[in-house]
Amino acid sequence: MSAAxxxxxxxxxxxxxxxxxxxxxxxxxxxxxxxxxxxxxxTAGLHQEFGSxxxxxxxxxxxxxxxxTVGLAAAGMRPVAEAQFDGFVYPMVDHIVCHxxxxxxxxxxxxxxxxxxxxxxxxxxxxxxxxxxxxxxxxTNVPGIRVVLPSSPQxxxxxxxxxxxxxxxxxYFEPKRIYRQYKELVPDDxxxxxxxxxxxxxxxxDVTLVTWGAQVKECLEAAEALAQEGISAEVIxxxxxxxxxxxxxxxxxSRTGRCVIVHEAPRTAGFGAEIAAxxxxxxxxxxxAPVIRVTGYDTHIPLFKLENAYIPSVASxxxxxxxxxxxxx
Length: 329
Description:
CATH superfamily of the largest domain: Thiamin diphosphate (ThDP)-binding fold, Pyr/PP domains
Protein name: Alpha-ketoacid dehydrogenase subunit beta
Cofactor: thiamine diphosphate
Distance between the termini: 50 Å
CATH architecture of the largest domain: 3-Layer(aba) Sandwich
Oligomer: single chain
Organism: Aquilutibacter rugosus
Shape: globular
Keywords: Oxidoreductase, Thiamine pyrophosphate
Helix content: 25-40%
Structural class: alpha/beta
Largest sheet: 7 strands, mixed
Number of domains: 2
Pfam family, one: Transketolase_C
């Protein structure tokens, strides 16, 4: 076990180190991940422990990083690549979508691509353009890959271990706003958490709050505030967006009859729209009020001063939950 509580970014480092010690096929690659330990220090110390053959500093070329990662995985390695920022992922899409996500099907199972692409994700750190995007929906409709978004140090550790061990490509978005926001005790025991399941973090009877990533903290705080008003909110951390564990969400909404979906990404075609559509298809007769979404705006995240106004807040989630409670079908 860690000697003391650790942050989310330290939990990622701990998971990488554990898996590299126990599986020689695991290697790390990306821009500045080696000698410098990564722009966010996620790979700090790994180069010193494992050397330059397993911790590879690459050129500043995301297309090459993605192609190399797909090739290494298809050849039997288990590479973990870093897209230094979320806005840098777009040059990687060609290799990941056209090759990584398709090789198992293309070869009828003769090849598979056990790769992880780590993507520092989302706003809230006052970074410039291309450094603060919530672009998870870029990958949520792509067959053949998993999309994972941890929300705490413990889940970051367990889900990253599971992602590295998975036989297919995993896009692992890391909410950088909470990289160092708080700490938890994280046993370094190599125990993976299950992929493809939601985590119910708080039980409730009146309204279901569905969210992922950095917004989990705001939803838990909103649930606490709502409890002071006599409103019992259940909080679900989706964690794996693709494939979606819709059964857990549907079971909760069938009990509460109300649902508020919260995400930082732009509203139009955000992943919350997919969840709302499935609720309309499967749970319409259980709903006591329309599903409400609390999201970012249909703009690029504004720089610096307006960043906090763009990201859903505890107050906006509480307001939405109150409105959901007040409305009826």
